[in-house]
Design goal:
Layout: H1 2-40, H2 54-68, H3 70-73, H4 92-100, H5 122-135, H6 153-163, H7 165-168, E1 175-176, E2 182-183, H8 191-200, H9 215-229, H10 245-286, H11 292-303
Antiparallel strand pairs: 1-2
Helix pairs in contact: 2-5, 4-5, 4-8, 6-9, 8-9
Bound molecules: heme C (HEC) (2 copies).
C-alpha cells in the first residue's frame, strides 16, 4: 500500500524533474546562443564569421577597438599618456592573451588585471588582435593549432621547474611577487593561452623567445602545464589542495611526527610492563635459593 502510494508520487515527480532538466538545457542553450549573437552585434552590424573577408575582419576589429579600447590605448593603438600603453608592435598573440584571459578591457585602473570571463567571443578577439597587429609588424601571430603530439612530459617538467616554478610554484598554484604583483595560478587555461604567455611574457613575466626556448621545448612545457599541472595525478597520495611542497611538508611533519610520538608512547609503555615482568620473574627465580648469606653466616661461626 505504502509502496504503491510512493510509486504514485515518485513517478510523476521523476518525469517532472526530467522535463525540467531538459527544459533548462534547451532554454539554456537558446539563451547562450542568443547571448553570443547579441555579443557579435554590439550595436554595430558587422559580424565576424568565417565567410567575412580579411578586409571585413579588419574593419570589425577597428570598430570594436574604437568602442572598447581607444579611450585608454588611443585611436591608433599608439597609447595615451598615463592611461594605456602603446600597443603597436605587441603582436596578435599578446592581444589574444590579454583579451581571452579577460584582463582587457580594463574597467578600473588596477595594479594587475584579474582573470575574468572574456568580454568578446573568440571571433571578435581575433578580429581585434589582427587589426592591432596590422598596424605595425612585431610580436607573434596567434598560434593556429597547438599540436602536442610527440611532446615529452618529463622534459616539460624539467623546463617548468627551472623556468616557471620560481614564480608560479612547482604545483602551479601561483605566488606573490615583488611590488604587489603576483604570478597567477595556472588553472583553467587553454594550450593556446599557455603558449602565448610563454612567447609574449605578460607584465613582469619574462619573454621566452624561440632563441631561449625552442618550439619543441615550449610545447613540452605547454603539455606539462595543461596536463599535469591542471589535472594532477597525485601519485604521492592525497592532493592536499596542491598547496605546494612546503605546506605539504608541514602536514607530513605533523602527521608523521604525531604518528612517531604515538608509536614511541606505545612502545615505551610496553617496555615498562616487560621490565616489571622480568624483574618480578627474576626475583621469583632468585627466591628459592636465598639464605646464601644466612647459611654462610651460620656456617661461618660454626666453622670458625
Ligand atoms: C581603462 C583603460 C583601458 C582599457 C579600456 C583597455 N586597456 Fe589595455 N591596458 C590598459 C593598461 C593600464 C595596461 C597596462 C596594464 C599592465 O601592464 O598591467 C594595458 C595593457 C594592455 C595590453 C598589454 C600590452 C603589452 O605591452 O603587453 C594589451 C594587449 C591591451 N591592453 C589590449 C587592450 C585591448 C585590446 C582593449 C580593448 C578591448 C583594452 N586593452 C582596453 C588600459 C586599458
Ligand atoms: C618572474 C616571474 C614569472 C616567471 C618566471 C614565469 N611567469 Fe608566468 N606569469 C607571471 C606573471 C606576473 C603573470 C601575470 C601577468 C598578468 O597578470 O598580466 C604570469 C602569467 C602567466 C600565464 C597566464 C595565467 C593566467 O591565469 O591567465 C601563464 C599561462 C604563464 N604565466 C605561464 C608561465 C610559464 C609556462 C612559465 C615558464 C616557462 C612562466 N609563466 C614563467 C610571472 C612569471
Amino acid at each position: 500500500m505504502a509502496i504503491r502510494l510512493l510509486r504514485l508520487v515518485l513517478l510523476p515527480l521523476a518525469v517532472l524533474v526530467a522535463a525540467a532538466a531538459l527544459g533548462t538545457f534547451v532554454i539554456g542553450r537558446d539563451h547562450v546562443s542568443a547571448g553570443s549573437t547579441a555579443m557579435e552585434n554590439p550595436g554595430m552590424r558587422l559580424t565576424a564569421s568565417d565567410s567575412s573577408t580579411p578586409a571585413q575582419q579588419l574593419a570589425l576589429g577597428r570598430t570594436l577597438f574604437e568602442e572598447s579600447c581607444s579611450s585608454c590605448h588611443g585611436d591608433n593603438a599608439n597609447g595615451k599618456g598615463g592611461v594605456g600603453p602603446n600597443l603597436q608592435g605587441v603582436g596578435a598573440a599578446a592581444v589574444d592573451l590579454w583579451l581571452s584571459t579577460g584582463w582587457m578591457p580594463l574597467k578600473t585602473p588596477t595594479l594587475q588585471p584579474a582573470n575574468k570571463p572574456p568580454s568578446f567571443p573568440p571571433s571578435e578577439i581575433r578580429a581585434i588582435a589582427e587589426w592591432v597587429a596590422s598596424l605595425k609588424p612585431g610580436g607573434y601571430p596567434i598560434p593556429q593549432s597547438v599540436n602536442l603530439a610527440g611532446t615529452k612530459e618529463p622534459t616539460g617538467f624539467d623546463l617548468f621547474s627551472l623556468n616557471c616554478a620560481p614564480c608560479h610554484t612547482i604545483t602551479g598554484a601561483g605566488d606573490a611577487l615583488a611590488n604587489g604583483y603576483h604570478a597567477p595560478p595556472l588553472r583553467g587555461l587553454t594550450k593556446t593561452q599557455v603558449l602565448e604567455a610563454i612567447r609574449t611574457g605578460p607584465q613582469n613575466m619574462p619573454v621566452f623567445s624561440p632563441g631561449i626556448m625552442p618550439k619543441s621545448q615550449a610545447l613540452d612545457v605547454v603539455d606539462y602545464v595543461t596536463k599535469e599541472i591542471e589535472h594532477p595525478t597525485d601519485i604521492g597520495g592525497l592532493g592536499l589542495g596542491q598547496v605546494g611542497p612546503v605546506a605539504e611538508g608541514f602536514v607530513g611533519l605533523f602527521v608523521g611526527v604525531g604518528a612517531c610520538l604515538l608509536a614511541a608512547y606505545w612502545v615505551g609503555d610496553r617496555t615498562v610492563e616487560d621490565e616489571d615482568d622480568t624483574v618480578k620473574r627474576h626475583d621469583e627465580e632468585e627466591g628459592p635459593e636465598p639464605g646464601d648469606g644466612d647459611t654462610a653466616e651460620t656456617i661461618a661461626p660454626g666453622g670458625a
